[in-house]
Amino acid sequence: MTRIFEFSEIDNLFLKYKDASLQENTEKYLDKLKNDIITALWNNLRTKKRIAAALVENADVMVDTTSYCIKQYSKYEDCKGFAAYTTKSIKNKLITSSIDSDFQDATGGMHVSDNYKETQSKLRRLYKSFIALRKTNSSECEINNNFVEYASKYLGIDKGTVTDFLYPKKATSIESNNSEDDSYDITDIFGGTNDYSSVNLYEQNEENTEILSKINKEWKLQKDDSKALMSELLTLIVIEALNRKFISIEYTSLEPYEFINRKMLKIFYTNHDESIPSQQEIGEKYGLTKSGVSKKITRFFEKIIN
Questions:
Q1: Residues above pLDDT 90, as percent of the chain
Q2: Phi, psi (5° rounding) for residue 6?
Q3: Are the beta carbons of 240 and 285 closer than 8 angstroms?
Q4: I need a labelling partner for 218 at 20 to 30 A (CA). Which of 35, 131, 170, 238 fits?
């Protein structure tokens, strides 16, 4: 059975690499350590269902990104946080590579230009605004047909481009291999290390504050009959991140976020004799299966995570 390394163990491998890089005649040893780091990260990432297929299809991207991160992180004095930093970088690159690859397949290998990416970005923003102004009794088909007319005139682009945006010819590798009950990995939301170095600690705290704000904003847009369920599920995710020390934040700092379930948060911080409900228990409370809960979480975070 393949051994899965903890992030702290991968950080230690990198520390050995960095120390060896300062010595003479260590080229072969450095190559071995680099290969060990890549293998450890590969085995770790293969366990993530959402990116496993993209990882295999874009192995060169994973290797190149790891090499780049090794080079960049070697400049820092503190090596803690290397594994989390590199894992996040690889995930971002794999997502970008999958999207670009699928577009190239659909267009006969045409290069993905900056103009194409900019147009897609404009369409996404415009569609969100357009939806917000539409009457709720309009069907999705009616809304989309009207959007094709509106967006093509507003942006001065071909209607076919707008239609392709609304109805993609194929899903990305990550999307098509996402299992029915596979919700977002918590490391996709709150990073994935409990030991950040001083180099990226401030940056990570800023990102987590931004994520919490996005969660709160999206939660407020939920239908009234879904808010209680999502409040408990989202609070459980935050508690998991706190428990695994992916984020470090005081009780009073979380109170302003409206999506937080105060009872669950109080149990975590002060009343350790009372148990916090599991995701399955929350689902059963609201009449949902495990798969139904995972779908709700996945769809929620699809709206706020790029």
A1: 21
A2: -75, 160
A3: no
A4: 170
